[in-house]
Amino acid sequence: MSGWNAGAVHLLETLTDSMAGYDHVGEHAHRFGFYAFCEHHATERAQLLHSYRRLMEMRAGQAERHGSILGTAHRLFLDFRAALSSGDLAVIEELIRGESFLASRIDRLLEQEDTPQDIASLGRTLRAHVSQSLLDLQAMQDHARQGQNAKAFRPFS
User: Where's the DUF2383 domain (predicted)?
Assistant: First the structure.
C-alpha cells in the first residue's frame, strides 16, 4: 500500500481506536467525570467513523473493523495513570495526546495529493471535529489546572 490508501487505512485504524477510547472513558465516567464530554463527542465521531468506513469499503474493498494494539495499550495506560494520579488532569492530558495523534493522522492523509475528493472532504470534516474536541479538552485542562473540579466543567451547553 502506498500513497493515500496507506494513510487512509492508518487513519481508519486510529479513528476506530478513538471511538473505542471514547467508549472506554465514557464507561468509567462515573469515576473520571467526563461522561458529558464523551457522550457529546462520541455521537458525532461514531457517525463520521461509519461514513469513513463506508467510503473505504467502496474504494478499497474492505475496511478495518478493529483498532490497533497501540490503541488498546493507550486505554490501559489511561486507566493505570488515572489510578496512580489525582485523576482528572492525567486523564485530560492522555485524551489530548490521543486526539493530537488522530489529528496528525488526518493531516497526513490530507497532505497526500492523490487522496480522492470524497475521502479528503470527510477528512476535513473529521479534522474540524477533532479540532473542536481538542479545544474543549484544553479548556477543561485549564479549568482543572486552576484547581477547579474538572468534573463540574462543561465545555458545551
Answer: 11-111
Residues counted in the chain: 157
Cα separation, 52 vs 14, in Å, equals 12
d(CA 70, CA 154): 30
Report residue 154 CA to chain centroid gap.
18
16 close to 7: Cβ distance less than 8 angstroms: no
Listed residue (41, 3, 8) closest to 22, CA to CA? 41
Residue 127: partners with Cβ closer than 8 Å, 6 or more residues away: 103, 106, 107, 110
pLDDT in tens, 108-143: 999 999 999 999 999 999 999 999 999 988 988 888
Q: What structural domains and CATH numbers belong to the chain?
A: 3-152 (1.20.1260.10)
> Sign of torsion, CA 137 138 144 148?
negative
Write the pLDDT tens digit of every residue in 14-24: 888 787 777 77
Contact 14, 71 (CB under 8 A): yes
